Amino acid sequence: MNTLFNLDLLVRENVKALKPYSSARDEYVSSGEQMVFLDANENPFENGLNRYPDPHQRNLKQLISKVKQVEACQILVGNGSDEVLDLIFRAFCEPGKDNIITLPPTYGMYKVLSGINNIENREVLLTDKFQPNVDEILAATDENTKLLFLCTPNNPTGNSFDFEAIERLLFEFPGLVVVDEAYIDFATNGSWSFRLNDFPNLIVTQTLSKAFAMAGIRLGLCFASEEIIAVLKKIKPPYNVNELTQQKAFEALENYETVKEQVQTLLKERKRLSEAIATIPYIETIYDSDANFILIKVDDANKRYNQLLEKGIVIRNRSTQPLCENTLRLTVGTIEENDKLISTLKAL
Ligand SMILES: *Cc1c(COP(=O)(O)O)cnc(C)c1O
Protein backbone atom coordinates (compact mmCIF):
# COMPACT_ATOMS: atom_id res chain seq x y z
CA MET A 1 0.00 0.00 0.00
CA ASN A 2 1.23 3.48 -0.85
CA THR A 3 1.05 5.32 2.46
CA LEU A 4 1.29 8.80 0.88
CA PHE A 5 -1.80 8.24 -1.22
CA ASN A 6 -4.99 10.15 -0.53
CA LEU A 7 -7.36 10.48 -3.49
CA ASP A 8 -9.19 13.39 -1.91
CA LEU A 9 -6.01 15.47 -1.92
CA LEU A 10 -5.50 14.85 -5.63
CA VAL A 11 -8.93 15.71 -7.06
CA ARG A 12 -9.36 19.35 -8.13
CA GLU A 13 -11.61 21.35 -5.81
CA ASN A 14 -14.09 22.31 -8.55
CA VAL A 15 -14.36 18.67 -9.64
CA LYS A 16 -15.02 17.53 -6.08
CA ALA A 17 -17.97 19.91 -5.97
CA LEU A 18 -19.48 18.68 -9.26
CA LYS A 19 -22.47 16.43 -9.56
CA PRO A 20 -22.46 14.23 -12.68
CA TYR A 21 -24.65 15.71 -15.40
CA SER A 22 -27.88 13.78 -15.63
CA SER A 23 -28.99 13.23 -19.21
CA ALA A 24 -32.41 12.08 -20.34
CA ARG A 25 -31.05 8.58 -20.77
CA ASP A 26 -29.89 8.55 -17.12
CA GLU A 27 -33.18 9.46 -15.55
CA TYR A 28 -35.24 6.65 -16.91
CA VAL A 29 -33.62 3.25 -17.17
CA SER A 30 -35.58 0.73 -19.21
CA SER A 31 -36.67 -2.39 -17.41
CA GLY A 32 -36.95 -4.16 -20.74
CA GLU A 33 -40.62 -3.31 -21.02
CA GLN A 34 -41.87 -1.72 -24.24
CA MET A 35 -41.97 2.01 -23.43
CA VAL A 36 -42.75 5.18 -25.34
CA PHE A 37 -39.69 7.43 -25.21
CA LEU A 38 -40.64 11.09 -25.43
CA ASP A 39 -38.00 12.38 -23.03
CA ALA A 40 -34.93 13.31 -25.07
CA ASN A 41 -36.25 15.27 -28.06
CA GLU A 42 -35.08 12.52 -30.36
CA ASN A 43 -36.56 11.98 -33.80
CA PRO A 44 -38.90 8.96 -33.44
CA PHE A 45 -38.42 7.58 -36.95
CA GLU A 46 -36.31 4.48 -36.50
CA ASN A 47 -33.12 4.14 -38.51
CA GLY A 48 -31.08 2.27 -35.92
CA LEU A 49 -29.29 5.41 -34.76
CA ASN A 50 -32.05 7.90 -33.97
CA ARG A 51 -31.68 7.34 -30.20
CA TYR A 52 -28.89 8.65 -28.00
CA PRO A 53 -26.33 6.02 -27.09
CA ASP A 54 -26.13 4.54 -23.58
CA PRO A 55 -24.10 7.12 -21.60
CA HIS A 56 -22.88 4.35 -19.28
CA GLN A 57 -22.02 1.92 -22.09
CA ARG A 58 -23.41 -0.92 -19.97
CA ASN A 59 -23.37 -3.73 -22.56
CA LEU A 60 -19.92 -2.80 -23.76
CA LYS A 61 -18.51 -2.58 -20.24
CA GLN A 62 -19.99 -5.94 -19.34
CA LEU A 63 -18.11 -7.54 -22.21
CA ILE A 64 -14.90 -5.60 -21.50
CA SER A 65 -15.20 -6.80 -17.92
CA LYS A 66 -15.39 -10.41 -19.10
CA VAL A 67 -12.61 -10.16 -21.67
CA LYS A 68 -10.23 -8.06 -19.57
CA GLN A 69 -11.14 -9.54 -16.17
CA VAL A 70 -11.76 -6.16 -14.56
CA GLU A 71 -14.94 -5.31 -12.67
CA ALA A 72 -17.38 -3.14 -14.61
CA CYS A 73 -17.30 -0.44 -11.89
CA GLN A 74 -13.54 -0.17 -12.43
CA ILE A 75 -13.91 0.64 -16.15
CA LEU A 76 -14.28 3.93 -18.00
CA VAL A 77 -14.39 4.11 -21.79
CA GLY A 78 -13.58 7.12 -23.90
CA ASN A 79 -13.31 8.51 -27.40
CA GLY A 80 -9.85 6.93 -27.80
CA SER A 81 -7.30 6.78 -24.99
CA ASP A 82 -6.56 10.37 -25.89
CA GLU A 83 -9.90 11.41 -24.36
CA VAL A 84 -9.29 9.20 -21.34
CA LEU A 85 -5.88 10.84 -20.79
CA ASP A 86 -7.40 14.31 -21.17
CA LEU A 87 -10.10 13.48 -18.60
CA ILE A 88 -7.38 12.39 -16.17
CA PHE A 89 -5.64 15.76 -16.59
CA ARG A 90 -8.84 17.70 -16.13
CA ALA A 91 -9.92 15.76 -13.04
CA PHE A 92 -6.66 15.98 -11.12
CA CYS A 93 -4.46 18.83 -12.39
CA GLU A 94 -5.07 22.47 -11.48
CA PRO A 95 -3.98 24.65 -14.44
CA GLY A 96 -1.07 26.95 -13.69
CA LYS A 97 -0.34 25.19 -10.42
CA ASP A 98 0.09 21.43 -10.64
CA ASN A 99 2.70 19.38 -12.46
CA ILE A 100 3.07 15.97 -14.01
CA ILE A 101 6.06 13.76 -14.75
CA THR A 102 6.74 12.15 -18.12
CA LEU A 103 9.68 10.02 -19.20
CA PRO A 104 11.01 10.89 -22.65
CA PRO A 105 11.46 9.40 -25.15
CA THR A 106 7.78 8.53 -24.95
CA TYR A 107 4.31 9.01 -26.42
CA GLY A 108 3.83 12.63 -27.48
CA MET A 109 0.25 13.07 -26.26
CA TYR A 110 1.16 13.48 -22.58
CA LYS A 111 3.15 16.62 -23.37
CA VAL A 112 0.49 17.93 -25.76
CA LEU A 113 -2.21 17.45 -23.11
CA SER A 114 -0.07 19.10 -20.44
CA GLY A 115 0.27 22.11 -22.76
CA ILE A 116 -3.45 22.26 -23.54
CA ASN A 117 -4.33 22.01 -19.86
CA ASN A 118 -1.59 24.46 -18.78
CA ILE A 119 0.11 21.93 -16.52
CA GLU A 120 3.88 21.91 -16.01
CA ASN A 121 5.46 18.82 -17.58
CA ARG A 122 8.55 17.66 -15.68
CA GLU A 123 10.61 15.46 -17.92
CA VAL A 124 12.85 12.79 -16.42
CA LEU A 125 14.75 10.97 -19.16
CA LEU A 126 14.70 7.21 -19.34
CA THR A 127 18.02 5.50 -18.66
CA ASP A 128 20.21 4.45 -21.59
CA LYS A 129 18.41 1.07 -21.41
CA PHE A 130 15.10 2.96 -21.84
CA GLN A 131 14.01 2.19 -18.26
CA PRO A 132 12.47 4.60 -15.72
CA ASN A 133 15.01 6.29 -13.48
CA VAL A 134 13.09 5.73 -10.25
CA ASP A 135 15.28 7.82 -7.93
CA GLU A 136 15.26 10.80 -10.28
CA ILE A 137 11.49 10.53 -10.77
CA LEU A 138 10.87 10.58 -7.03
CA ALA A 139 13.34 13.45 -6.60
CA ALA A 140 11.44 15.49 -9.22
CA THR A 141 8.15 15.36 -7.28
CA ASP A 142 6.73 17.99 -4.96
CA GLU A 143 3.38 18.64 -3.28
CA ASN A 144 1.86 19.72 -6.62
CA THR A 145 2.88 16.60 -8.53
CA LYS A 146 -0.31 14.84 -9.56
CA LEU A 147 0.45 12.34 -12.30
CA LEU A 148 3.22 10.09 -13.58
CA PHE A 149 2.91 8.59 -17.06
CA LEU A 150 4.51 5.19 -17.60
CA CYS A 151 4.11 3.96 -21.16
CA THR A 152 4.82 0.24 -21.20
CA PRO A 153 5.53 -1.18 -23.73
CA ASN A 154 6.94 2.25 -24.47
CA ASN A 155 6.33 4.14 -27.69
CA PRO A 156 8.71 4.73 -29.57
CA THR A 157 11.34 2.50 -27.94
CA GLY A 158 9.18 -0.66 -27.94
CA ASN A 159 10.45 -2.12 -24.65
CA SER A 160 8.48 -2.88 -21.51
CA PHE A 161 9.49 -1.25 -18.25
CA ASP A 162 10.95 -3.44 -15.50
CA PHE A 163 8.42 -4.86 -13.12
CA GLU A 164 10.42 -3.79 -10.04
CA ALA A 165 10.70 -0.18 -11.22
CA ILE A 166 6.95 0.11 -11.82
CA GLU A 167 6.11 -1.54 -8.53
CA ARG A 168 8.45 0.74 -6.61
CA LEU A 169 6.88 3.79 -8.26
CA LEU A 170 3.42 2.51 -7.37
CA PHE A 171 4.54 2.21 -3.76
CA GLU A 172 6.42 5.50 -3.50
CA PHE A 173 5.08 8.03 -6.01
CA PRO A 174 2.89 10.61 -4.22
CA GLY A 175 0.33 11.07 -7.04
CA LEU A 176 -1.48 8.84 -9.51
CA VAL A 177 0.52 6.47 -11.70
CA VAL A 178 -0.94 6.17 -15.20
CA VAL A 179 0.28 3.01 -16.91
CA ASP A 180 -0.39 3.36 -20.65
CA GLU A 181 -0.74 -0.16 -22.02
CA ALA A 182 -1.67 0.65 -25.63
CA TYR A 183 0.57 -2.23 -26.77
CA ILE A 184 -0.08 -4.71 -23.97
CA ASP A 185 -1.56 -7.37 -26.26
CA PHE A 186 1.82 -7.67 -27.99
CA ALA A 187 3.82 -7.89 -24.76
CA THR A 188 5.11 -11.00 -23.02
CA ASN A 189 4.28 -9.75 -19.54
CA GLY A 190 0.74 -9.31 -18.21
CA SER A 191 -1.30 -6.20 -17.62
CA TRP A 192 -1.08 -4.09 -14.47
CA SER A 193 -4.89 -4.06 -14.47
CA PHE A 194 -4.68 -7.26 -12.42
CA ARG A 195 -3.10 -5.24 -9.58
CA LEU A 196 -5.82 -2.57 -9.26
CA ASN A 197 -6.84 -3.84 -5.86
CA ASP A 198 -3.25 -3.63 -4.59
CA PHE A 199 -2.67 -0.04 -5.72
CA PRO A 200 -5.35 2.63 -5.17
CA ASN A 201 -3.12 5.11 -7.05
CA LEU A 202 -2.97 3.01 -10.24
CA ILE A 203 -4.71 3.93 -13.50
CA VAL A 204 -4.26 1.60 -16.48
CA THR A 205 -5.18 2.73 -19.98
CA GLN A 206 -5.60 0.52 -23.02
CA THR A 207 -7.04 1.03 -26.48
CA LEU A 208 -8.77 -0.78 -29.32
CA SER A 209 -6.57 1.15 -31.76
CA LYS A 210 -3.65 -1.27 -31.99
CA ALA A 211 -4.06 -5.02 -31.40
CA PHE A 212 -7.83 -4.86 -31.97
CA ALA A 213 -7.36 -3.18 -35.37
CA MET A 214 -10.00 -0.56 -34.57
CA ALA A 215 -8.16 2.78 -34.66
CA GLY A 216 -10.99 4.24 -36.75
CA ILE A 217 -13.74 3.83 -34.17
CA ARG A 218 -11.82 5.63 -31.37
CA LEU A 219 -12.25 3.55 -28.25
CA GLY A 220 -9.99 3.93 -25.25
CA LEU A 221 -10.22 1.93 -22.03
CA CYS A 222 -9.39 3.06 -18.54
CA PHE A 223 -9.12 0.74 -15.53
CA ALA A 224 -8.82 2.09 -11.99
CA SER A 225 -10.40 1.90 -8.54
CA GLU A 226 -14.13 2.48 -8.40
CA GLU A 227 -13.39 5.80 -6.61
CA ILE A 228 -11.13 7.10 -9.38
CA ILE A 229 -13.57 5.97 -12.07
CA ALA A 230 -16.36 7.81 -10.25
CA VAL A 231 -14.34 11.05 -10.38
CA LEU A 232 -13.66 10.66 -14.11
CA LYS A 233 -17.31 9.85 -14.82
CA LYS A 234 -18.31 13.16 -13.25
CA ILE A 235 -16.47 15.12 -15.92
CA LYS A 236 -16.89 12.96 -19.00
CA PRO A 237 -19.32 14.21 -21.66
CA PRO A 238 -22.44 12.05 -21.27
CA TYR A 239 -22.41 10.64 -24.81
CA ASN A 240 -18.66 10.50 -25.29
CA VAL A 241 -18.74 7.09 -27.00
CA ASN A 242 -21.14 7.03 -29.93
CA GLU A 243 -23.49 4.19 -30.78
CA LEU A 244 -21.59 2.96 -33.86
CA THR A 245 -18.39 2.79 -31.83
CA GLN A 246 -20.09 0.91 -29.02
CA GLN A 247 -21.47 -1.62 -31.52
CA LYS A 248 -18.19 -2.10 -33.38
CA ALA A 249 -16.19 -2.33 -30.16
CA PHE A 250 -18.58 -4.97 -28.90
CA GLU A 251 -18.06 -7.03 -32.08
CA ALA A 252 -14.29 -6.66 -31.87
CA LEU A 253 -14.24 -7.81 -28.25
CA GLU A 254 -16.52 -10.74 -29.07
CA ASN A 255 -13.94 -11.79 -31.64
CA TYR A 256 -11.02 -11.73 -29.22
CA GLU A 257 -9.82 -15.05 -30.65
CA THR A 258 -9.29 -13.42 -34.06
CA VAL A 259 -7.41 -10.60 -32.38
CA LYS A 260 -5.13 -13.09 -30.65
CA GLU A 261 -4.46 -14.87 -33.96
CA GLN A 262 -3.60 -11.59 -35.67
CA VAL A 263 -1.32 -10.67 -32.78
CA GLN A 264 0.51 -14.00 -33.16
CA THR A 265 0.99 -13.31 -36.88
CA LEU A 266 2.31 -9.81 -36.15
CA LEU A 267 4.70 -11.15 -33.50
CA LYS A 268 6.06 -13.70 -35.99
CA GLU A 269 6.41 -10.97 -38.56
CA ARG A 270 8.17 -8.70 -36.07
CA LYS A 271 10.75 -11.44 -35.49
CA ARG A 272 11.14 -12.11 -39.21
CA LEU A 273 11.52 -8.40 -39.95
CA SER A 274 14.19 -7.78 -37.33
CA GLU A 275 16.14 -10.89 -38.39
CA ALA A 276 15.92 -9.97 -42.07
CA ILE A 277 17.32 -6.48 -41.58
CA ALA A 278 19.95 -7.44 -38.98
CA THR A 279 22.78 -7.66 -41.51
CA ILE A 280 22.11 -4.37 -43.32
CA PRO A 281 25.34 -2.36 -42.85
CA TYR A 282 23.79 1.09 -42.25
CA ILE A 283 21.47 -0.27 -39.50
CA GLU A 284 23.48 0.06 -36.29
CA THR A 285 20.98 -1.15 -33.71
CA ILE A 286 17.68 -2.99 -33.74
CA TYR A 287 16.07 -2.51 -30.34
CA ASP A 288 14.14 -5.35 -28.73
CA SER A 289 10.42 -4.79 -29.01
CA ASP A 290 7.42 -5.89 -26.99
CA ALA A 291 5.05 -4.03 -29.34
CA ASN A 292 3.89 -4.07 -32.99
CA PHE A 293 6.76 -1.87 -34.14
CA ILE A 294 10.54 -1.87 -34.12
CA LEU A 295 12.88 1.02 -33.38
CA ILE A 296 16.14 0.97 -35.31
CA LYS A 297 19.21 3.19 -35.23
CA VAL A 298 20.72 3.98 -38.61
CA ASP A 299 23.65 5.99 -39.98
CA ASP A 300 21.52 8.92 -41.13
CA ALA A 301 17.82 8.82 -40.25
CA ASN A 302 16.74 11.77 -42.41
CA LYS A 303 18.43 10.32 -45.45
CA ARG A 304 17.01 6.79 -44.96
CA TYR A 305 13.56 8.19 -44.18
CA ASN A 306 13.51 10.17 -47.44
CA GLN A 307 14.86 7.26 -49.46
CA LEU A 308 12.05 5.03 -48.19
CA LEU A 309 9.49 7.75 -48.89
CA GLU A 310 10.68 7.91 -52.50
CA LYS A 311 10.02 4.18 -52.74
CA GLY A 312 6.51 4.68 -51.39
CA ILE A 313 7.09 3.48 -47.82
CA VAL A 314 6.15 5.76 -44.94
CA ILE A 315 7.79 5.13 -41.58
CA ARG A 316 8.33 7.39 -38.57
CA ASN A 317 11.51 9.36 -37.99
CA ARG A 318 12.01 9.61 -34.21
CA SER A 319 15.40 11.37 -34.33
CA THR A 320 14.29 14.53 -32.58
CA GLN A 321 13.38 12.61 -29.41
CA PRO A 322 16.01 12.49 -26.67
CA LEU A 323 18.14 9.29 -26.64
CA CYS A 324 16.77 8.56 -30.14
CA GLU A 325 19.30 10.21 -32.42
CA ASN A 326 19.12 8.70 -35.92
CA THR A 327 16.30 6.34 -35.07
CA LEU A 328 13.40 5.22 -37.21
CA ARG A 329 10.25 3.47 -36.05
CA LEU A 330 8.91 0.71 -38.28
CA THR A 331 5.37 -0.55 -37.77
CA VAL A 332 4.97 -4.28 -38.47
CA GLY A 333 2.62 -4.62 -41.45
CA THR A 334 1.21 -7.51 -43.46
CA ILE A 335 3.55 -10.18 -44.81
CA GLU A 336 3.53 -8.47 -48.22
CA GLU A 337 4.17 -5.02 -46.73
CA ASN A 338 7.04 -6.33 -44.63
CA ASP A 339 8.52 -8.09 -47.67
CA LYS A 340 8.48 -4.79 -49.52
CA LEU A 341 10.06 -2.97 -46.56
CA ILE A 342 12.78 -5.62 -46.20
CA SER A 343 13.73 -5.68 -49.88
CA THR A 344 13.66 -1.88 -50.09
CA LEU A 345 15.84 -1.45 -46.99
CA LYS A 346 18.29 -4.02 -48.37
CA ALA A 347 18.51 -2.27 -51.70
CA LEU A 348 19.28 1.21 -50.33
C1 LIG B 1 -1.36 4.51 -30.20
C2 LIG B 1 -1.23 4.86 -28.77
C3 LIG B 1 -2.35 5.16 -28.01
C4 LIG B 1 -3.71 5.07 -28.64
O1 LIG B 1 -4.45 6.18 -28.50
P1 LIG B 1 -5.96 6.13 -29.01
O2 LIG B 1 -6.40 7.53 -28.74
O3 LIG B 1 -6.69 5.12 -28.17
O4 LIG B 1 -5.95 5.75 -30.45
C5 LIG B 1 -2.21 5.43 -26.67
N1 LIG B 1 -1.00 5.43 -26.09
C6 LIG B 1 0.10 5.14 -26.79
C7 LIG B 1 1.42 5.09 -26.12
C8 LIG B 1 0.03 4.87 -28.15
O5 LIG B 1 1.14 4.62 -28.86
UniProtKB/TrEMBL annotation:
N6-(pyridoxal phosphate)lysine, modified sites: K210
Residue stretches making up the Aminotransferase class I/classII large domain: 47-344
Catalytic reaction annotation: L-histidinol phosphate + 2-oxoglutarate = 3-(imidazol-4-yl)-2-oxopropyl phosphate + L-glutamate
Keywords noted in UniProt: Amino-acid biosynthesis, Aminotransferase, Histidine biosynthesis, Pyridoxal phosphate, Transferase
A GO term for molecular function: pyridoxal phosphate binding
Pathway: Amino-acid biosynthesis; L-histidine biosynthesis; L-histidine from 5-phospho-alpha-D-ribose 1-diphosphate: step 7/9; Lipid metabolism
EC number(s) given by UniProt: 2.6.1.9
InterPro entries in the record: Aminotrans_II_pyridoxalP_BS, Aminotransferase_I/II_large, HisP_aminotrans, PyrdxlP-dep_Trfase, PyrdxlP-dep_Trfase_major, PyrdxlP-dep_Trfase_small
Cofactor: pyridoxal 5'-phosphate
Presence of keyword DNA-binding: no
GO biological process, alphabetically ordered: L-histidine biosynthetic process
One matching Pfam family: Aminotran_1_2
Taxonomy, superkingdom: Bacteria
Gene3D superfamilies: Aspartate Aminotransferase, domain 1 (3.90.1150.10), Type I PLP-dependent aspartate aminotransferase-like (Major domain) (3.40.640.10)
Similarity comment text for this entry: Belongs to the class-II pyridoxal-phosphate-dependent aminotransferase family. Histidinol-phosphate aminotransferase subfamily.
Assembly and binders: Homodimer.
NCBIfam families hit by this protein: hisC (TIGR01141)
Protein name as catalogued: Histidinol-phosphate aminotransferase
